[in-house]
Each structure stands twice: as structure tokens, then as C-alpha cells.
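Hey, does this match?
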Amino acid sequence: MYLDPDKRVDLATAASYVHDGHMIALGGGLSARLPMAMVRELIRQGRRDLHVVGSAHSMDVDLLIAAGALAICEESYVGFEQDLGLAPAYRRAAETGTITVKESCCVTILTQLRAAEMGLPFLPVRGIKGTDMRRLHPEYAETTCPFTGEVLVAVPPLKPDVAIIHAPVGDAFGNLFMEQPYVLDEHFAGASKSVIATVEKIVPTEELHDRGVVIPGYFVQAIAEVPFGAHPASCYPSYSYDRAHMSTYVQAAAKPESADGYVADWVNVPGGEDEYRNKVGAESLTRLTQWSESIDQWKGLFS
């Protein structure tokens, strides 16, 4: 447990708690509430051989792969859904074997996190019976139900070294509030050895309690205030995801050389996140915050 009275740090310090070879759990899902600012900072600091676990993700995982930071990917899905299609760097790395793919499914990962939270040596699952996922996970076993005799898959607890979570607001003690859906973030917090959080805004504890504590501060090692810390993913209700920027990334990631160019132009910039936001532009960021003003407004963001 982390009981420091004030856990506020800058982004670079927060990222320094993640070490090469760590298993990191990425919060959020698909293109919503991804911890993109932390992902970019880990790349700036030159992290390598990371083992990522998550439910279903997109640019955060793909960018880590494009930058050469990832060694193992344990996810149920990596891609840009029906909108922008496959994740280019992930697909290329999987096909060439430059990363180890340990495909899983959301319920299996959730079950493993629950086992860790409850201090159990395993929990049974049924959904992956008969699939090839057993081949990708030699750590899985079989167990026979003592009541029905059914043979089930036994999965061990999943205990990430660090959970990286982005939330709309938090306080100086590390308490976090976020809008539903929480995806796996609550369970990541309970199962991981530590939690590193970025938030859109750090608010007084009284204000946070009025909204409700989703992840209590005793799980959290450090918290950094990073406006637009999920960009180009969304952080509802504050802002929508930046489809135009994501499309730019997907096109760049199609080839290793242009992916390197994206990393150089948008990630490894001298001014860090301040320069990143300046390059995106205040007008573009403001437009993303206006998604809820009208139907035409949010439709315009995806045209």
C-alpha cells in the first residue's frame, strides 16, 4: 500500500517507476481513456522489453511496438475497430516474430486478475476450452470440478508490476474518479504491485469524494496531472477521440520508416507533452471538447 500524504509528481518522474522488462497493465480500452501521455513518456525514456497486458487496445499498444519498447503482448485485441482497421505495427511485429504474442480473452484476463485480488492460486474458466489459446499459454492447466466432474481450464493469478491508468480527475492522495465503463481498471489496481496514474486534473479531496472514489489512493504510487493525457484517444465526457490524428498515425505505422518518422515528430520532441499539445494545436483540442454540444458537432468529428 502507498500511504504517502502527497503523491503528486511530474510525468517524467511517474514514468521512471516503470522499468525495462516490467509487466505493465494498460488502463482504458479500444480508443477510450488510454494512458497515451504515459506511453509517449515511456518511449522518450527509452523503455525496452515491456510485457503489456490489457483487454482490447489500439494506438497505445501499437505505438509501443512501433517504438521498439514492447517484447510481449498479452491482449484480447489490438486494432482500430471498424473505423481505421488493423493495427499496423502490431500486425507486422506478430507476423515477423519480433514480439511474443500471447493472445488471451477479456474474461480470462479478468478471471486471472480476480485470482490475484483474492489471493488464490488459480481460478477456473470455461470460455477458452477447445481453443488454441492453451498453446500460447503453457502456464494454463486443467482442473476437474468436484461437483460436476467437468474439466475446466485453470488459469493462474495475473500480477502486473505496474498498472498505468488515466482518469478524468484525482486528488493529491492518488484517489481516482472515472466515468463508466471502467473496463479492467479497478481490477488492474487491485491485482498490480503498484499503480501509476495520470489525470486530466488534480482536484481537492472534497470535490473528488463528491464524485465518488473508483480507485482508492492506497493502491496508487504516483499521480501526475497531464491535460489531454489520453489524446488522441478520448476521455469522456471531457473530449472525444481525435480521429484525424489517429488516421495520421495508422497511415504512418504502415511502414517501419514512416512509423519511425511519427515517433520522431510526435513523441521524441524536446518539450515533451507541452510540445505535443502545441503541435496538435489549441483549436483542434478545443474542438474535441465540444463533441457534446450538438449531434452535428460530434458527427463532424468523424466525417
